[in-house]
Amino acid sequence: MRDLREALRRVRAAFEAAGYTVDGVRGLLGPVAGGALARDEIAPALRATRGGSPLEALTRLFWLQVPVDAAALDARDLVAAGLVEPSGGEVRPLLHVEPLESVSGAGHAGYVVSDLKVRPGSGTVPADDHVVGTGGASGNLARLVVHKPVDNVLDLGTGCGVQAVHLHDRLRRARITATDVNPRALELAAMSFELSGMDGVELLEGSLLEPVRGRRFDLIVSNPPFVVAPSGDRRFTYRESGMPGDDFCRRLVGAAPEMLEDGGYCQLLANWLHIDGVPWEERLGGWVEGCDAWIVQRDVQDPAEYAELWLRDSCEAGTPEYRARYDAWLEHFERQGVTGIGFGWITLRRAERPAVRIEELRQAVDQPVGAYVEGVMDGFRNAEKFSTGCGSPLRVADGLVQEQVGPPGAEDPERIVLRQTAGLRRAAGVGTVEAALAGVCDGSLPLDPLLGAIAQLTGMDAGQVRAHADTVLPELIADGFFEVP
C-alpha cells in the first residue's frame, strides 16, 4: 500500500508538470474536438493529440483511452500505480483518470480514477461493479452543494470520489467520510484521493446510512443510485439500488434529520415517480419531516424515454437483449401506474419548524447554485412568518428589473413583470402595489408607512392595500424578489 501511495504521488507530480488539467486538455483539443468528445466521438480528439508531447500522451491514454507509444512518456510510475500496462512497444490504459475543474470554473480541483468508459458501439456493456467517472449528474450536484464552511462532511455513495474531491478543493480542513456499497468503488476512490493530494479521508463500506449510523454531520451529499429500474433489478451498482421504485431516495430523505447537526444540510440528486392520479408534489412532500426542504424538478420523461435513456447509458441499444429489457421496463411502469419520471435535486436543512418548497424549474439558472442556495432556503422560512403587521422592513433583491407591457403611449401598462437577472432568474407578473414597493424598498424603512403612501398616491383604500400586500408578498419573498434584512 505504501508503494502504491508513493507511486500515485509521483504520478500526480507528472500530471501537473505536463499540464494534465481540464484547462490544459481544453486548450489542447480546441472547441471542435472538445465538442465532439462531449458527444462521445473521439476521432477529432485523436487528430488533435498526435504530436507526442506528455500532455498529448496522457490525454490519449486516460481521456481517450487508447494505447500510446511507450517512448512517449516514462510509464514506470503509471505501471506501479496500476493505471496502465505494457503491451508490446506500447502502454495501454487500465483505468480512466480525469482531471476535475473547480466548481467555480477557475482552477484545478484534483483527479478522479474510474473504470474505462464503455462507449456506444463498443459491443460491450459495463460490469456489474463498474465505477463511473465524472459526468453531467456529478457536475450538477457539485454545483448545487452549499458554499458554507463546515467541519464534518459525508459523501454517501461516493463512487470514484467526485464529490469528496470537490469538497476538499473548497473545504480544505473539513473531515470527510466517504461511503459506498461497492468495494471496487472505494478502492478507486482511494486512488482518486491520493492523486488529488487528500489525506485522512475515512472510507467505509455499506448501503445507505448504515456505515455511519448514530453519527451526525454538518453536510451530507449524495449522487445516489437513483435509477428507477424494474423491481429487484440491481444490474449496475453505480445507478440501481435494488429497492422498489424511488424508495432509495425516499429513505435517504427520511433518514437525513437524525444524521444532521442542527442547521446541517443534506443535498442529493434524485429521480421520482409520477403516479397516475397522485400529484408528484404531494408524494414528495410526504417524504420530508424535520428539515427545511427545497425540492426542484428540472425535467420529466415518459416511461419509454426513461427506459431508452438508461438502456443507452449501459450501451445495450442494438444488443439482442435490448427489446426484452425495454419491454421489462415498460411492463414494470404500467403495473405501478407510472406516467412519468421526474429528475431533479433535493436540499434539506435540519430545522425545528420546517419550511418546505416543492416546485418545477425548467429555466437556466446561474451556476453554481450552491453560492446562493442558503439564501433561497432563508427566503422560504422568512416568507412563512412574514406579515405586514410585524414591523419588519423589506429590501428589493439585487439584480431585479421591471418590465412593462402595453400599447405605445398608453397611460397604464397592461402587465408589469419583475424579473431576476441573476440566481434562479424567475419572473413574476405583479400589480401596482408590488411594483411600487419594488421601487422604494431598500431595507431602511418599515413597511407600514410605505404601504400608506402607496394608498395615498393610488387613491386605493389603505386597508385593502395592506390586505393585498399580506396576500402577495410572502410568495414574492419565497421566490427571492424581496428579502427580509
TrEMBL record:
This is Methyltransferase small. GO terms for biological process: methylation. Residues 17-93 form the DUF7059 domain. GO terms for molecular function: N-methyltransferase activity; nucleic acid binding; protein methyltransferase activity; S-adenosylmethionine-dependent methyltransferase activity. Gene3D superfamilies: Vaccinia Virus protein VP39 (3.40.50.150). Residues 147-270 form the Methyltransferase small domain. One of its GO terms (cellular component) is eRF1 methyltransferase complex. Signal peptide: none annotated. CDD domains: AdoMet_MTases. InterPro entries: DNA_methylase_N6_adenine_CS, DUF7059, Euk-Arch_PrmC-MTase, SAM-dependent_MTases_sf, Small_mtfrase_dom. The keyword Transferase applies. The keyword Repressor does not apply. Belongs to the eukaryotic/archaeal PrmC-related family. Keywords: Methyltransferase, S-adenosyl-L-methionine, Transferase. It comes from Actinomadura verrucosospora. Pfam families: DUF7059, MTS.
